[in-house]
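[agent] plan:
  1. take the single chain provided in the ticket
  2. run structure prediction with default settings
  3. attach structure tokens to the ticket
  4. add a short note for the reviewer (M.T.)
[agent] executing step 1
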Amino acid sequence: MLTVQNIRKTYKGGIKAVDDVSFTIEPGKVLGILGPNGAGKTTTIRMILNIIKPDAGSITFRGRTVDEFTKNSIGYLPEERGLYRKSTIADTLYYFASIKSAVNSNTKREISSWLERFELNGMEKRKVEELSKGNQQKVQFIAAALHNPDLLILDEPFSGLDPLNQLKFKDVVLSLREQGKAIIFCTHQLESAEKICDDIVLYNQGKSVVSGTVEEVKKRFGSNVIRLEFEGDATFLSALPIVKKSEIFPNYAEVELTDGSGLNDLVPHVVSRLQLSKIERMQPSLLSIFIDIVGKGNLPEDFVQPISV
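[agent] step 2 finished; step 3 output follows
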């Protein structure tokens, strides 16, 4: 459906925002464009939407360059708020449907259905400025999806959402995938993305550093990784001779053991020092893969674990 081939974009000062990136997305798939803020994700989206032109490479949607006609088959949820604050929810959604040539006899019913889905029913007359950030994000999502696009591009869709609404958004995204929509999920929240995406392109400093299906990527970087969930102070794990490297968080940790070491070697070290709730061998997370690739010392400050969905 969408093919991106060897695109490049350089800004003034020689800053390479996107450097030789390629990927494709097909109907019924969720593609994650992942990486820290400033990695080139939003620039890529703007090139896909023909808002800015690539300096090199090509982007085609159903075999043709994106233009005003093909844009009607694409929905876009930007990272920044793009709503008219003084307008009501109903007026806002009618307006966005109209610019996609999607207003018809069913529009009112479609709007009501979407509002009910996001638990906003009965709020049609409320002004956007009266809504919480989370509810504004819901309205913006509906505006992106109301015209029933074949390709839906979501740039940081969980922005401003509490954990329950993140779950709601995840369920809606997966439902649209089941309907055959192609979805681009652009985020720096890797833990959330690996639960939603079929395929990924992982960015760093404008380059694609790894791509493929989530399963393929995890197998490619698979290692002797153990995940522990616990109560207590687990900082001692990094000093154990059998631990090659570790990522330690307040309530869980991922440790890679040295060659020849196994789960049975680790257990005696932890049972007396931590209150364990789970310990298991696992595939590496996308976050740990990213750290492997770029090096822990190069990990951006904004690249943190999100709330799980």
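[agent] step 4 note for reviewer: The longest strand covers residues 15-25.
[agent] ticket updated
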